[in-house]
Structures are given as structure tokens and as C-alpha cells.
Amino acid sequence: MGRVDPMYQFSLDAYVDLFNQSMDKSRTSPKNITGTERCRQINVAHTLSVYQYTCRGLFERDKLLFALQLCLRIMTSENKVPKQEFDFLCYGGAGIERADQRPNPCPEWIDAGAWDNITALDSIPACMGIASAFEQGQRDWRAWFTSSEPEETPLPGDWENKVTEMQRICIIRALRLDRVLFCASRFVRLNLGPQFADPPPFDLRAIFQSSNHRTPLIFVLSPGVDPTAQVKSLANDLSTNVDICALGQGQAPVAMSLMNLGLRSGSWVFLANCHLMLSWMPELEKRIAEYCAMTEDMPHAPHCDFRLWLSASPSPKFPIAILQRGIKMTTEPPRGLRANMLKLYNLVGEEQFGRCQQRLKYQRLLFSLCWFHALLLERRKFKSLGFNVPYEFNESDYSICHDLVIVFLDEYPDETPFDAMRYLIAEANYGGRVTDAMDRRLVNVYITQLFCEQAISPQTEFNLAPQLSDSPYIIPNDADLASAKLAIKTFPQLDNALAFGQHANADIASQIEDSSTLLDTIVSLQPKVIDAGGESKEQKILRICHLMQEEVPPSFDAAAVRRGMGPRADPEPMKTVLYQEVDRYNILLLTLHQTLKASELGVQGLVIVTPELEEIIEAVLEFKVPRAWSTCYPSLKPLTPWMRDLVIPPLLLLKKVSI
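Below the sequence we write its predicted C-alpha cells.
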């Protein structure tokens, strides 16, 4: 995972400690169990412990990636993931030879890229015959293709009983790239267990209890997030003093003085924004190593109550030793309405929950406020369909509004001042970040729906998402802290776009982007090795380069084009544009011919492989467009459809020149 983000660093010592804890926690059966059963218990407990421990320090976008990687590695060790199926999951139909491809029977709803995927899938032994199944059962396959949740919908014909879950992901990847994330979550849930598909909610108290005085606790920051309030709240709950130092120029002596004081007295020290003093981090690393090396019987051993808290934005220059020694925590909001609401409720302690005198009104409005905050955070996943301008709402906004609700309810016990509450929440607090008029209007619509008389009426079950028929998002009548958390856990794990007031198809673009990112990351994490009996890297490069050289059209004769176009009566601006396009494509076509030939010679050892050529070879192996080829026109397509598009403009230019 360290190749995904520089802050994802874990040490062997931490793993050994975690393994020992897993052995102790897994002792639930009688002592006379067999060795095989005991090993199974340890494996199950340790796998879950590794997942939960690692998820603390992962950003939300990478938690499913880690769970899927963990699941695939375990299944691969058990020979349950054929290499052909895994390669298809990574690359799809990239590199398919179109000369032998059967015609697309459903071009009106299966595009060329999807049919390439189906053709490649048909070459896998377990899925052989799927291309002909589309010819024979077009209506059934189209009904499945257009379903809202194809990963949960039975496949047409006898394919539902024939395929494994891995093959189901391959079919989803071939036709519905937007549902790959959901299918991957289902795959993990069915093969490892539901607890691996649902990341644990952030619980700072539990993380603190798993630490000791030699373990730094490191917040990996996200934009707009400040964990200071959470650390202060936990210190107050535990009646502990915490000294805070915001790092910056000239703060090194202050930070070191606070650390020395904390080591002697047992107080906490929070060094915020370590990324602003990366030049001082080696000194901090040295000091941490010094007091960690001390034994308990030494005169200056660290106090057992001492804790060192750090916060830093991701940086490749942050000391790896500190990251490996410490417990890492990400502070960005979790993904999903359910996970966000659980996190917000975990921030509310029993004492704070009992502060308000208007208990019933407070419980129901707190539920509405958490829902409102979760809606605004999760709406960002719709990209430009969610907000015209992206905003970084954070827990400080929620905490201020939470206190505001308590104050207004206590000050006005007879009549709830909804207008004042709505204005201060939507216009002053959250609205203070909103710069676009339509976005501000949206925030006001949400708060008007959620802060109203019906929301605090105990006689009605208030629906938080009225656009949904059979909505599961209901404020529970008994909304005390425990009951509210139980109610939130019944919410769907996957959010329906209608819960946000959006069209059901609003999140397709973002889902395709997220799925592509997941698959690209999996490809980048794969070792560059070849299994015994498989096609070698050199053979693969030679084959791909040979096929591509046959597809790349020859370059234009620019002088002949100018001679032919000069006497014609076409407008001069059109001629100028045509000449420019010919020159641009000539540069690209010549670059393609030269680099493809050089790649062939390079893998055969006949020419020196430069860093630029090596980058091209690696990109071609992963079916990506090399940067050296992307100078002519911008494109986000993979290599195969990019090559298909490359042929079209030269043909059009030739047609124009020959008219």
C-alpha cells in the first residue's frame, strides 16, 4: 500500500504485535480443539484484525481497494482465482485482435469497447460461449444490462448457475463499468465476510486504548479537516492535560520542550501540521527513537500516561520510521450516508447528549442535523451535478451547529425558533463556505425540509428522504444515543441517488471514474513477473508492438499536400487549418512508428532502453497511452480505443485532400 500513498507505511514489529493480540483474542473455544481448527481460528481473527488496523490509516477511497486486494490474495493462495480471469478484471478487452472478432449483434446498446470486452471474455475457458449467448438471447441480456443493480440481478439463461463470483465481476467489468465498485464490495462480502465490506467507524477512544506511551498517534490530514477538537474532547473525558503546538517557523524548541515535559509528567502533546516543518522531522524521529529505547527501570523513562499526537498532510518526505512505529488515522469523512452518520454520533458522548433540557426535540433534531451534514458531504460524489463549486465542509461546522441547536432549544422551550435555526445553520455557518447562489439555494432547501415541526413531532415517523418510496431513512421515535446508532446501522450500505433528491442516473459518471481508478491502482500494484508457462514480458511487448505498427497509418507527405491544395479555390483559412492538422498528425504518427520500432529493438537488446522508452514499454504493457503519444490531442481513453480513434482523423484528412 506504500505505493498508493507515501503515508501508508507499516512495520514488521507492529505486525508481530498485532499477530500476538490476534492469538489471544481468538481463544474462544475449549482447549482440546485440533491444531487445524486452532490455526483456522487464528487465521480468521488475524485477518479481521489486520483489516481493521490497516483501515484506520487508509483514506476512504482506498479501503475497498485494500479489502479487495486482501480477498484476492487469500483466494489466489487457495487457487480460487484463475490468472486469465484476474488479467481480464485488470485490463478488460484491451489488446483484442479485431481481425478475428465476430460482428457485434447488438450495436444499439453494446458499444465497440464493451464488445471487445465480451470477445476477450469469450476466450476464457469458464466463459466460453458468452458471445454467442448475446446473439441468441438479446432481449434477456438487454434487460439485465439495463437493470439498476446488475450485480444483484440473476444473469440470463443458465449463466447464473455457471459462473463464479469472480466471473460475475468480469462480466460486470465488461458491460457495466459503473457497477464494478458495488460488485467488488459484494465479492468481498461473500468471500471474506460482511465485516470486510463495511469499514469500521472512526472511534478515537478505541484507538487510544490500543496505544501505549511509546506509540505516536498520527492523524493523516485531509483538506478542511482539523482533529484538534477531537483530541481535546477525549482528553477532557479522560481528565488528562493536552499541550498543543501548531508547528511552523521557530516552533521546534517549543515542541521539544512540550515533549520533554510530557515525558516526565505524563501529559499529552499534540504537534499539529508536521508537514510544515519537514526539515525538523529527522530531529523528532531521533527523539522518539531515544525515549522508545529506554526501559522502564531507567531514570528518565517515559511516563506510562504520556501520548504523542501528530497531524500531517500526506508527504513522501515524512519520516518512514515514525509512520511505521505509530498508529495512523485518517480524518476525512467516511463514504456513505450511513458511515457518516455513525461517525457523527460517535463524536457525541453521553454527557454531551444529556446536556439539553428539551430531550425529545433535541434527539430528533440531532438526527436531522447529522443527516443534513452527511447529505452535504456525500453530495460531492456527484461532481458538478452535486455542487457547482466543491466545498470542504468539516466536523467543525457540525459541532458549532450542534451546540447552536442545544442553546436555542434551552432558551426557547415553548416554541422552537426554526427560522433562526435554519438561518444560522444554512446561511451563516454552512452557508459561509458556499459561494455559488444555486448551491446556497440547495443548502436552504435541505435545511427547510429537515428542520420543521414534523421533524420533532413524536406522533409521526419523519421521512428524511421523501423522494424514496419505502424509504429506510426514518427518524426513530426513541432516538436516544444507543437507539439512534442501531437505527443508523439499518440504513442501506449503498446510497440511492434519490435520497439526495437526484435522478437515479446522476452518479454514473462518478462511479465509472471511481471504478477505473480502482482497476488502474490494482494494475499498478501487480508485480512485474511472469508465471511459469505464461507469455513473457518480452514476447508480449513484441506481439503488441507488431499489431500496433500494422494499425498505425503512414505519415502524410506534407509537401505533396501543399502542392495539391495550393491551386484549389478553397478558402485560405481552411487550407491553413488543414496544413496545421497534417503537421500535427505527422509528428504523432512519426513518433508512434519510431517508438514502436525502438521498443521492439529494446526488448531484444539491440538498442539502449532510455527512461523515456522504458516508460512507453511499461504503459503499453498496462494498455495505457504513454505520455509521449498524448501530445497531439487530449484523451482519457485506454490504449485500445485510443488506437481506434487515431485512425479516424488521418482518413478524414486524406479524404479532404483528395476531394
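The CA atoms of residues 185 and 197 lie 6 Å apart.
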